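Revision sheet: structure tokens.
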Amino acid sequence: MNSSLLRRLLLFSLPIWIAIALAAIWGIGESHRSRALSHRLERLERLADRLVASDDFGDPERLIERWYLPETRLTLHAADGTLLLASERSERPSLRSVDRPEIRQAIAHGRGSDRRPASADAPASLAFARRLGTTAIAARSDGPSADRSLPSVDEVPVGILRLVAVVDDIETETFAIRMRTAALMTIVSGVGLLQMFAAARSALTPLPRLIDFARRLARGEQDARLDLRTRREPWSSLGDAFDRMQLGLRSRDEALESYGQRLRTTLENMAEGVVATGRTGEVAFANPAAIRLLGISKAAPAGRSLPELVRFPELLAAVERSRRDEQSTKVEFETFGDPRRILAVRIDPIPEGFASEAVIVVRDVTELRHLETMRRDFVASVSHELKTPLAAIKAYAETLRLGALEDVEHRGRFVDEIEQQAERLHRLIVDLIQLAKIESEQEVIVPEPVDLSELIDEALGPFYGMARAKNLTLLADADGPVPALADPDGVVTIVDNLVSNAIRYTASGGRVDVRCGVDATGGWIEVEDTGIGIPPEHQSRVFERFYRVDRARSRELGGTGLGLAIVKHLVQAQRGTIELTSKVGVGTKLRITLPASPPRH
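Predicted:
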């Protein structure tokens, strides 16, 4: 990692160093050239001033003949730039030089200069020109050696003095300075790069450890430790910041893990089923209750589409409707198979920005709907059971009011019927109150050690006369004391209701046996008759309130329809069990088991 960073640093910094070096080389060379040319130009200006002021300037030909600077050329020009005299005979006098920059500048401003680079025909040079007054140039000589091509003083009112110096030496010096500067910059750059790379390598030494630490954190290694092995800034502060970040991440991870565990435990133990679907309709999560209620395969439902897992068209239609309308939807349907269940489902869409699209909550309302049905049936049954005796009482009372009171022969029978119906109504109300108290746990049930045989004898006392009146045999069979842990009044009520039902539904000449005993499970009571029996399809419901196998016959026999319901609730309140065995035309046997009495010390 360090090598890669250093290579990138080299690729980034090397062009910068090269650019700086080239700029320095060019700048230093140009600075030397500029200073040297300025100095050389100043010399030419001073030389021109001295020439103008010298005695030789009054005789230009003499000045040219005595010119002593071999690297500097001197020329005189007319006002229009025409060459008049030159220190080098190679320059023809008729040549016009007005196009030269220095001459144009001198004509316009009095002085001018220009630098010409070296070429194949001429070396590099620096030219200076100065404008002269008309009196500064003498007339040509009329002697035999005079040049007849030169104009007279009257023909040249003003003139231009021009000096041209060769500056190849300056270019040579500039090149040499640039070479020395390049060598120096190479050394300085090399040393600087080495120092920079050494400093960078030293500074980046903790970076691989930091990267490894970050990768271990990303893999979830909460016990990872960061040791940068340096206290230099900013690594020291960075290491402290990473330590604090690790502690914060660990704390948040532990909180999230704890929250997730609680959430998983809650969802896994909910009675309601919960299914979360993703944005593409796949199942993201399903808790055990949902798998059980919807019949979903337990083999990894996550990631599969809901139609693959669920076969209830009502549910699938509700999910599609909720997705289309983007609002909560409720649906209730009955499952297939046995046992059938009634499921209430609510689908709630989840707003954008979350991983899931919808949450489906499934509740098993089979028992609730059954209780609602029972409640409706109970209200209807109570209304009917109350209405029947009240209607009879009202009818007999109206008969007496309409004249039967004067009928000595029949009025007593009407009064007896009113009394019987009132007694029936009274028993019904008493049974309803007792059942309500037992179900609401207002009936005080205090189990205590009892002898079941004694309680059975106490309960059977009133029934011997009833049995004889119907020509029935009522027998109690107990082999000595039968200990059990039960509520005495509750046991008497249980026996009373069971024996009353047995006598009521056993025909004349029949038999009712009441037995009790004790075994490993506790004390037990059996009431068996030779009555009409109960068909199999009704046996699971005879303990419901007001449920009758034959309603017309039950009312004729005087039952309230609450006896077995009271028996069941009293037995359950004492932590006992009840079993029913019956065969149509043979008889019925009910067995009550109560907890065993603890041994006496």
